[in-house]
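Let's do one together. I've listed all components of the complex below, 658 residues spread over two lines.
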Amino acid sequence: MTVTLDDTAAPTQAPRRTRKTDWGKWFTWGVLAWLFAPITFMIAFSFNDIQGRHNVTWEGFTFKWYGGVFDHAELTQALLYTLAIGVLTMLIAGTIGSLLGLALGRHRFRGQGTTNLVMFAAICAPEVVLGAALLSLFLLVGIATGFMAILLAHVMFTVSFVAITVRARVITLDPNLEEAARDLGAGPWTTFRLVTLPMLLPAIMAGGLLAFALSIDDYIITSFVAGEVTTFPLWIWGATRVGIPPQVNVMGTLIFAVGVTLAVINVIVAKRRRS
Amino acid sequence: MTATTEAPATTVAEPSTAAVPAISLTGVTKTFQSSRESFTAVGGLDLDIESGEFFSLLGPSGCGKTTTMRMIAGFEEPTTGVVRLDGTDVTDVAPNHRDVNMVFQSYALFPHLSVADNVAFGLKRKRVGKAETDRRVAEMLELVELGGQAKRKPSQLSGGQRQRVALARALVNQPRALLLDEPLAALDLKLRQAMQMELKRIQRDVGITFVYVTHDQGEALTMSDRIAVMNEGYVEQLGTPAEIYEHPATRFVAEFIGTSNLLTGTAAATTSDGTDVRLDCGQHVLVAERLSEGTQVDITVRPEKIQLSTEPPDASLSRVRGTVADTVYLGSSTHYTVRLDDDTEIVVFQQNDRDLSAADAVAGRGSDVWLSWRLSHSYLLPS
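Okay, and this is what the predicted structure of the assembly comes out as:
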């Protein structure tokens, strides 16, 4: 967008000013390239027409991996596990985290400082420490490793992100809004449904998507508590020794597309609410 | 009143003939407790607000006026005492079950709802029918002159328009009383003055009891039928704007409302008209009250009640001599600051109804002048 501005403004502007803006432009494109180059390669190699096991050199364009995306039964199973865990994590951490964020942002209560501390600790702690700690905890209390253990672990480490996102929104809300609703005859639940929830929805959605994204690509914590279950990242890591099939790129591309779509929808909804 | 106590909320606008006040506070106190300290916001309040009147709670910030209003609305529970609406005890009733509505200082419009949906919010909660709701919303938006803005979002409106949406959203429910918490504070001066007139007009039109919280004495004097001046959790004085301005009951009221001159002295002798008081500066003035000799008194006089002259005024008036320390020309009037021998300063407002050059000559800076006022225009403050 800065580019078009510069183009139209260039004839009337002094040359020095144009050169100055160019640096910003190149830097912006540089950062974007840095961010998107790996994704571009992932998408490109999902169309790579390879003959052997190794998807590392370009051998021609094909759509066949999209047709045969579910050919590896184990990979498909891993993807389903990952999506199920991701969606459940999003719903559970989204709900608990939102309520936590609402409580932390709105009320003063005993243990509030401790709650804040524990939340930040959960974010700051190295995943390898969390993973090892969770594994020993699960063994100690007798929770079997596997699907439930992964889900518990994912909810545990994503809930803080949701809570912090929602809390930031709650703090900026005018507390008079809820009082106004009460004043106009709405009970506590109606007030929450008609006023508080709609106001918090963009933050709740953002937090939920963050939890989903964190869950779907987690390797380290998952590897400690997965047991017999193989998730998408675990399967890929296992496959690197024998060559990653192009289906992985296809699935990655599809997940990326879904993620981008959700993010765009969130932005549009938030923008429409504001205006 | 017995016949109408059971009447539905929609008919409350008719004037009540019985003596039951619209809002009644009895022995109300409010103490906020935190872990380390407690703070008494309202120290003991007995207040009856009559049906259909424009009642103001006036005071500086922290005087308890907003807490009082929030207890009427139900957002705060009194620590002790009883809140009654139309004689019914509502002390423990939740805000959504009280037949009063509030206009917030921040307006608190729902940003995700349109103007019409904001105004309809209360009616929908009462399950008023769709057609009836639409009719009343349109009618109310007409009343506040926002007929064409129904579909817009609050963020698309100006400050004055938002203020009127907030007013419409509360009034459309035809509450027993409307509570307004400094609703004009965020508006600029011109708009504020226009809205003062507008509020008064709307209040007359709908006939609903208005309880108005403000720290702006001009606003309270302009609009109110009665004012309660509050300070540190207590009502200092309750009365009509004229009563409060002309006869302040306490030093606080005298100083908070308008400008007051304060003269301290001692009663010297009683005369046929009242008492001769020897001021601290050595001069003598008369007051109408009879005081025993030696009594310490604080006398106050409003600046506009004082006459300024170069000739000695009539001896039946209270009069002092001083030197003009400063003059401020304000167009319709001139404000003089006159200094007495002991550096007491007296402010005098003089209408510029005389020939200006002559008036200027009368009281240029540094000139010696006489100040005089009628005995009935000064009053003693309880110490």
